[in-house]
Amino acid sequence: MLSVHIADSHVSLRRAPRPLPKPGYALIRLLVGGICNTDIELLRGYYGFAGRPGHEFVGVVEAPADSKWLGKTVVGEINLGCGKCERCAAGLERHCARRTVLGIVKHPGAFAEYLTLPERNLYAVPRGVPIEHAVFTEPIAAACEILDQVKIAQGAEVAVLGDGKLGLLCAQVLQAHGASVQLYGRHAEKLRIAAGTGCATSLGERGLPARAYDTVVEATGSAAGFASAIRMTRPRGTIVAKSTVHGNVEVDMARVIVDEITVVGSRCGRFAPALQLLRSGKLRLDGMISAEYPLSEAEAAFAKAQERGVIKVLLRP
Amino acid sequence: MLSVHIADSHVSLRRAPRPLPKPGYALIRLLVGGICNTDIELLRGYYGFAGRPGHEFVGVVEAPADSKWLGKTVVGEINLGCGKCERCAAGLERHCARRTVLGIVKHPGAFAEYLTLPERNLYAVPRGVPIEHAVFTEPIAAACEILDQVKIAQGAEVAVLGDGKLGLLCAQVLQAHGASVQLYGRHAEKLRIAAGTGCATSLGERGLPARAYDTVVEATGSAAGFASAIRMTRPRGTIVAKSTVHGNVEVDMARVIVDEITVVGSRCGRFAPALQLLRSGKLRLDGMISAEYPLSEAEAAFAKAQERGVIKVLLRP
Q1: From the list A87, A95, A267, which residue is nearest B257 (CB)?
Q2: H-state helical runs in chain A
Q3: Mean pLDDT across chain A
Q4: DSSP class per residue in B86-119
């Protein structure tokens, strides 16, 4: 089968044997995959990664023959817990110390004609949700994670910083939840997507309001964004830190302490609420798809995904 | 009256007129004051402070003549809110944007023969609590603030980093609350004080356990301490940041996000729980008093408070 390979900051194609699912695992034929910022970071060498990337996908289960998933269109949670530890027992496989992660840590990714995942990781794509939307399940779940961690009341004013993929989804998810979202970004055309779901938007980095929000979601991917988040948060307010910034970030801890700000690190989330939101039709995803490529043009797809102004790039077998 | 003055990194004595309390304010005769790290930071010029320091005190109310506090031995909350804003209405004067702060921000401090404070800031020292213990009310309240912000279950293992004044009080307060505290410090003689209240202790900076605690209290006052706190916290765990570090602190935000760590900035607290704890007799404070000086020797007292190994230095009129 055709498989995408990343090593030494380079994307290449390989012929690989179709994987044999271990007991408890499903063989999944890829329908569509999405390139995430993490994939670009893997390519850039931040994690010393070499292997097959891809963790946003929709596929059809083709084996084993006796699987209850056979023939079903599925998405899958990307963290594979050990299944034995305290955290796995608590449903927190995504914090299992021995986890592997689809396309990121020691489990071959979804950018190939076939992939495998434990059946317990699978979720059926709800009827009526197109696969081009379902492929957003994983990043939507990451946005929904905010609601699992922080109490956000109906009508609460929330600032989201950053109009990249994650910022746009966080804004839409919180707006759909009932918050009153103000999205701060740098691209008028991206802000328009969030505006379509009712978010208020602000273009540019000037005049960010000081001590103005009880909840600020930082999704800019930059250290400067985190500094802005601190300045924009009210005393006793909360910053949700969504975007991984590499290396150390300089933080004005004195302000965090004096204003008793809470900073909540936030990563992956549960798929169930994300699928429910997808079914609700409240999200605007079409405008977020910038381009599609066949797997065989993965190198061009990764190049496109790194262009300014581009949001989501999809891959199809 | 005799008054201590700080300006240009220098402690001096002044003769000042006895203050006239405004309506709603009490005139308080100082019985004993305590030198806090913040006072030392004021002296070192971190805040461009010039004026009379002192915010840890016990005193006797001497005016106005019709005050219900007259003749009472009191301590007092140090934040003076505007009394009109949303935060003051919510009992959060200590986050009022227009607050003044006793001995810190635009309200003359307690290191003088007399001071004034709004009567609503006063609390009677409970019967049986010696004034040398009651003078710790403010920093004990700061330690109690942790329990107002973070849920800590009975028997929960909590690490406290730093065996300075604040670390020792945090450790004692959390142990008295029912947590199982492990205090990490650098001074055997200081650790012994906490051990006397049942805390387990660890001396030295080597071999700090990684991802070992759900709750870590950072009270070292150093950027390195915060980095240690991040390494010692379990996924989904909480770091309570107590000690103000000046300038920016380099934070491994990637770890905070991937492990979904929560960082809670924590400053001043309510006096009521602190006074209740003082009355309980569960805290060991005698060992924390390193020296006492008369107000007239304030310069020597400040010098002593900056010596290595010294914990609390008291001032008496």
Answers
A1: A267
A2: 37-44, 86-89, 131-134, 137-149, 165-177, 188-195, 223-232, 253-258, 271-280, 298-305
A3: 96
A4: HHHHTT-GGG-TT-EEETTBEE--SSBSEEEEEG
CB contact under 8 A, B267 and A258: yes
Residues of chain A with C-beta less than 8 angstroms from the C-beta of B91: none
Its sign, for the CA torsion B217, B218, B224, B230, is positive
CB atoms within 10 A of CB A308: 6
- Is B48 within 8 Å of B86 (Cβ atoms)? no
**CB atoms A92 and B235 under 8 Å:** yes
pLDDT at A243 (0 to 100): 86
Low-confidence stretches of chain A (pLDDT < 70) are none
Reduce the DSSP state of residue A52 to 3 states and report it.
coil
What ipTM did this prediction achieve? 0.94
CA distance B54 to B278: 21
Type and span of the H or E element at B230: helix B223-232
How would you label B264-287 residue by residue, b for 16+ Cβ within 10 Å and e otherwise?
bbbbbbebebbbebbeeeebbbee
Which amino acid, residue A134? A
Has residue B275 got a pLDDT over 90? Answer: yes
Amino acid A204: pLDDT: 87
- Residue B308 CB neighbour total at 10 angstroms: 6
Is the CB of A260 less than 8 angstroms away from the CB of B260? no
Phi/psi of residue B273, nearest 5 degrees: -65, -30
Name the CA dihedral angle for A285, A287, A289, A291, rounded to a multiple of 10 degrees: 160
Structural contact between residues B76 and B57, judged by C-beta atoms closer than 8 angstroms: yes
Which residue from A97, A98, A94, A59 is spatially nearest to A78, judged by alpha carbons? Answer: A94
Does pTM surpass 0.90? yes
Q: Which residues pair with B118 in a beta bridge?
A: B25
Distance CA B252, CA A53 (A): 25
Contacts of A106 (CB under 8 A, 6+ apart): A100
Q: Compare CB distances from A254 to B245, B261, B264 and report the shortest one's residue.
A: B245
Query: Is B265 close to A244, i.e. CB distance below 8 A?
Result: no
Q: B194 to chain A nearest CA, in Å? A: 24
**pLDDT of the residue at B34:** 98
Substitution target from A150, A151, A222, A256 for chain B, most B beta carbons within 10 A: A256
**A-B contacts at Cβ under 8 angstroms:** 111
Top residue of A88, A144, A250, A257 to mutate, by most chain B CBs within 10 Å, is: A257
- Tens digit of each residue's pLDDT (9 = 90 or more) over B92-134: 999 999 999 999 999 999 999 999 999 999 999 999 999 999 9
Do A37 and A221 touch, CB atoms closer than 8 A? yes
Tokens, residue B106: 């635009």
